Amino acid sequence: MSISVLGSGAFGTALAISLAGNGPVTLWSRDTKQAQLMQENRENAARLPNIGLPDRITVTSDIALASQSDILLVSVPMQKLRGALRDYAAVLAGKTLVACCKGIELSTGLGPISVIRETVPDAHPALLTGPSFADDIARGLPTALTLACKDDVLNQKLQHDLSTANLRLYRTTDVIGAELGGALKNVMAIGCGACIGEGMGESARAALMTRGFAEMQRFALMRGARPDTLMGLSGMGDLVLTCSSALSRNYRYGLALGRQDDFDTNTTVEGVATAQALTKIAAAEGLDMPISKVVAEISSGECSVGEAIRWLLNRPLKEE
Ligand SMILES: NC(=O)C1=CN([C@@H]2O[C@H](COP(=O)(O)OP(=O)(O)OC[C@H]3O[C@@H](n4cnc5c(N)ncnc54)[C@H](O)[C@@H]3O)[C@@H](O)[C@H]2O)C=CC1
Ligand SMILES: O=C(CO)COP(=O)(O)O
């Protein structure tokens, strides 16, 4: 069984490092120069600095070589997934493709598994998601993640092949729940960052996380997820991590909005597009998603963080 990771950002590189503990791994970058530098310097200086690449990792920009592996982990941002798969659909046909991204595609409202099904119809899709910072995984710190696949036989094999000494995978066949837990927690993390950045305090953050989780469940159940999936690593677990740590880019983006600070636009912040996608879908379905709505509005500049908080507080009182 051979493994490649397609996408050499922070998460793809971290996964490759962890998986290299089991055997050889091919790490593919679309950027030839970056691939050469990483292969020579044994470091991803751009996205994961100061962490060495084990000898068992081969970095390449040759997709024909990378796609020869049995299992391909696809670790690109959600809004880039369709384009990346479409570009290489011919060599990805029939492969096991494990999406490692968190989000909802803005143009279609779909999650990663559906995007794989549309772009590479005869691939075997799965999803790796849950609470983990790339830096923690790359440093070999203990992490537990969710592996989701409709086909439980394939999922059991993947669970075995992708678990490492420090990466413990739990499996589920509820791909919708797993996708949505990872996608929606990023939206709530932006909200929590904004709340802290604006100086609203820890109690307000706890309220946002809890009411945010209620929104996550409402949306996921509407889409057919199982409620227990949201209580697991890909829902509650990732919500707790991302809403409470400045290691999260979504949280830091929210902090910057609350403090009215600049933010590096080259940073991957999945929650921005996902908040817009959610708001669009919720409006069409008549679903009440107030926190997602204000996160979409503060991200697009339609309203300030202060206005958003006042609007949330002044909504009609209701049962919990
Ligand atoms: N960084 C983290 O701690 C974690 C990230 N994730 C998820 O992993 C996904 C990727 O995030 P990161 O690696 O952190 O982002 P990143 O910004 O560090 O890297 C993204 C990578 O995708 C590549 N890329 C973009 N468009 C591409 C295309 N069309 N074809 C090929 N490659 C393309 C970029 O060149 C870059 O190397 C996101 O959905 C994120 O939510 C999940 C768990 C942890
Ligand atoms: O998904 C993550 C943690 O599980 C990483 O979060 P950020 O994308 O906000 O950095």
TrEMBL record:
Pathway(s) annotated for this protein in UniProt: Membrane lipid metabolism; glycerophospholipid metabolism
Enzyme Commission code(s) on record: 1.1.1.94
Domain Glycerol-3-phosphate dehydrogenase NAD-dependent C-terminal: 174-309
Main location group: cytoplasm
GO annotations of cellular component type: cytosol
Localization, UniProt: Cytoplasm
Membrane found in the keyword field: no
UniProt catalytic activity: sn-glycerol 3-phosphate + NAD(+) = dihydroxyacetone phosphate + NADH + H(+); sn-glycerol 3-phosphate + NADP(+) = dihydroxyacetone phosphate + NADPH + H(+)
Active-site residues, record numbering mapped to chain: 185 (proton acceptor)
Residues reported in the UniProt entry to bind NAD(+): 7-12, 134, 249
Entry annotated with the keyword Cytoplasm: yes
Binding site for sn-glycerol 3-phosphate: 102, 130, 132, 185, 238, 248-250
Top-level EC class as recorded in UniProt: oxidoreductase
InterPro entries given in the database record: 6-PGluconate_DH-like_C_sf (IPR008927), 6PGD_dom2 (IPR013328), G3P_DH_NAD-dep (IPR006168), G3P_DH_NAD-dep_C (IPR006109), G3P_DH_NAD-dep_N (IPR011128), NAD(P)-bd_dom_sf (IPR036291)
Biological process (GO), any one: phospholipid biosynthetic process
Residues in Glycerol-3-phosphate dehydrogenase NAD-dependent N-terminal domain copies: 3-152
Binding site for substrate: 102, 249-250
Molecular function GO terms recorded: glycerol-3-phosphate dehydrogenase (NAD+) activity; glycerol-3-phosphate dehydrogenase (NADP+) activity; NAD binding
Gene3D superfamilies xrefs: N-(1-d-carboxylethyl)-l-norvaline Dehydrogenase, domain 2, NAD(P)-binding Rossmann-like Domain
Keywords from the named record: Cytoplasm, Lipid biosynthesis, Lipid metabolism, NAD, NADP, Nucleotide-binding, Oxidoreductase, Phospholipid biosynthesis, Phospholipid metabolism
Function, in words: Catalyzes the reduction of the glycolytic intermediate dihydroxyacetone phosphate (DHAP) to sn-glycerol 3-phosphate (G3P), the key precursor for phospholipid synthesis.
Name of this chain's protein: Glycerol-3-phosphate dehydrogenase [NAD(P)+]
Source species of the chain: Ruegeria meonggei
Gene: gpsA
